[in-house]
Specification:
The structure is a homodimer. By secondary structure, chain A is α/β, with parallel strands linked by helices. Chain A folds into two domains: 2-172, 3-Layer(aba) Sandwich (Rossmann fold), CATH 3.40.50.1970; 175-367, Dehydroquinate synthase-like - alpha domain (Dehydroquinate synthase-like, alpha domain). Chain A is built from 14 helices and eleven strands. Chain A has helices at 25-28, 46-58, 78-90, 105-117, 131-137, 175-192, 194-208, 212-232, 239-242, 248-258, 265-282, 288-300, 313-320, 350-358, and strands at 2-6, 13-18, 36-42, 63-69, 97-103, 123-128, 142-147, 150-157, 163-166, 333-338, 341-345. The first copy, chain A, has a four-stranded parallel β-sheet, sandwiched between helices. Chain A has a three-stranded mixed β-sheet with strand order 1-2-9, with helices on one face. A two-stranded antiparallel sheet of chain A has the order 7-8. In chain A, a hairpin with a 2-residue loop joins β7 and β8. The termini of chain A are far apart. The mean pLDDT of chain A is 94.
Chain lengths: 368, 368
């Protein structure tokens, strides 16, 4: 088991990475000081792993209750957060309770947000069960839900007390979910870690084949990158943390336009990253060869790289305008100065952005 | 104009108390650094004061939008918070916007909670328009909404950037609302300020007659008490801040049982405070004469002091069990060691509490 630390003063917490952590009491007990524990999971994950977590906690004489939600991004809304509150109140959970998120990014984001708001704040522990959640969403305290008019528009910064990354649970992940996680792994290479990017290019086939050793390495390096960024800019007060959103403004527009849950978040981010690379090329930052490297790696990871043809450039722009990075009415995007160096910019002609939005199958393909 | 300060390090903020503050730009401008301002109000207050605030802000070239809710505690729920988010998104409000709460406690609590959660946090300014909100709920950062199973169960700690207590707006307050505010004023005397309690007993008739000089004094002393407590225990991490909840556990049960909005919060708290005094007497802390003083002052302030006969002791206990002060399954109540000295206790026989809950019209009346 490896242990990384997210350094946030009194809100610091460990990330444990290893096999079969769900039954290791020392990953839970020091961090769950409450008596009442509510495990929040979904209908896909609960049959697979709920019992394991439940037994570990029951053996420590916690009072353990569960709340199982339907599986999917389309349920990441305020109504389903209210459902968590109802269960907590029906079970008479007090302010000294804790929530345990057992699931992917949706379960983690919702459980964290519920923990932030229940009785004005109770603690929570993350057990991410998808690759995407393990390398990204479970670390850093961004929690929340979608609004019909925009993704992740409602939420809170709420740090977990610990994150348990159990690599054994990835065996049950389907191919699309697994590839979606690789998108966020690749992101760290693109925004701030060129050696990692090169390592990924070398090992992408092994990663796609779910080689356990490579996977542990990829997860640890991703989490370390995430932890470093979060420690330096917890509340996204400057642009540092915003760099983690490479491809996300494009991606969120795809997710919102297609209906939440149709494209997986990681799939939309993958295509969004290629769009960001395409725009970075049009603006003179990247070479054609750079864009091609990005595309090749994403394709090798079995990720989509062509935005849906049903989304017009106008719709894209409309949906991108509600992005959280918009400042003083001006759209700001994460772009690539070079591979491994991202930056936030509002300084681009809308006409150039429109070219990227209209590129369709030419996006990346033109560079072959 | 008087200025008090809530001392919370980088979250410190001023409380301005005076007449006709709504048109004083210096109360707004230094605290609203955003360009986009959303004024949240209700259908009772908006026709009276919205235009005044709007003009003050428009003259400073802010972009000003409004969101008007129905008036009443029964609308303080998650659905109506979602309504605020919808307006914010429809108007394309970004993360650098600010919300202005113009209304009573319900508007303030909801606007603050919306500000805490919109895009994971934007700033907000409080303009309380009821006496209760001016002396209590607008100061201290407790925000949130009710759940059908419990009052204020969902929320966040979110400090405003400034609080504008305009005493001129109290002229339009109806008698019940005004008396409800006096309940919270009296609370400060009971929990921590005996000289203020004596002052209130002397001046209660003048206060009921809305004497402007007495009122300004009562508000300032209440806000100072609130600011002192909040500065010492912002997140209710120890029992100090909990003392502000004298009468509230009983009161919340009344509000929940009767249906939100039937009893005003201050009315329920008034009756709840007499119940707390009654229990404190049964436990040997207060004398009969003390309880009588409490009752006389509440009655002089035109406040109800008899709990609804429709709420059985069992229902009371049931509803009190979901209180946020419950710790490790044990009900904790704010009691009075003496007049002017409150404390939190879990150390009382349930049978004695049951006597208080069953006392009905004998509550306080027995001591006449």
């Amino acid at each position: 088991m490896q242990t990384l630390q997210v350094a946030l003063n009194e809100r610091s917490y460990p990330i444990f990475i290893g096999e079969n952590l769900l039954t290791q009491v020392n990953c839970f007990k020091p961090y769950l000081t409450a008596k009442q524990i509510m495990i929040v999971s979904n209908s896909t994950i609960a049959p697979l792993y709920l019992e394991r977590v439940q037994s570990t906690l029951l053996a420590q004489s916690y009072v353990v209750e569960t709340h199982i939600m339907p599986d999917g991004e389309q349920y990441k809304d305020i109504a389903h957060i209210e459902g968590i509150f109802t269960t907590l109140l029906e079970k008479r959970f007090n302010r000294d309770c804790a929530l345990v998120a057992l699931g992917g990014g949706v379960v983690g984001d919702m459980t964290g947000f519920a923990a932030a708001c229940y009785q004005r704040g109770v603690s929570f522990l993350q057990i991410p069960t998808t690759l995407l959640a393990q390398v990204d969403s479970s670390v850093g305290g961004k929690t929340g839900v979608n609004h019909p008019l925009g993704k992740n528009m409602i939420g809170a910064f709420k740090q977990p007390v610990a994150v348990l990354v159990d690599t054994s649970v990835l065996d049950t992940l389907n191919e699309r979910e697994y590839a979606a996680g690789l998108a966020e792994v690749i992101k760290y290479g693109l925004i701030r870690d060129v050696p990692f990017l090169a390592w990924l290019e070398e090992n992408i086939d092994g990663l796609v084949a779910r080689d356990k050793v490579l996977l542990a390495e990829a997860i640890a390096r991703s989490c370390q990158n995430k932890a470093d960024v979060v420690a330096a800019d917890e509340l996204e007060a400057n642009d540092l943390r915003a760099l983690l959103n490479l491809g996300h403004t494009f991606g969120h527009a795809i997710e919102t336009a297609m209906g939440y849950g149709v494209w997986l978040h990681g799939e939309a981010v993958a295509t969004g990253m290629l769009m960001a690379a395409d725009l970075s090329w049009r603006l003179g930052y990247l070479s054609i060869a750079d864009v091609d490297r990005v595309k090749k790696l994403l394709v090798a990871a079995k990720l989509p790289v062509i935005p849906p043809s049903t989304i017009s450039p106008t719709t894209f722009l409309d949906l991108m305008a509600v992005d959280k990075k918009v400042l003083a009415g001006k759209l700001r995007l994460v772009l690539l100065k070079s591979l491994g160096e991202a930056f936030v910019s509002a300084d681009f002609p809308l006409a150039t952005l429109a070219q990227t939005l209209a590129a369709g199958t030419q996006l990346g393909q033109a560079y072959d």
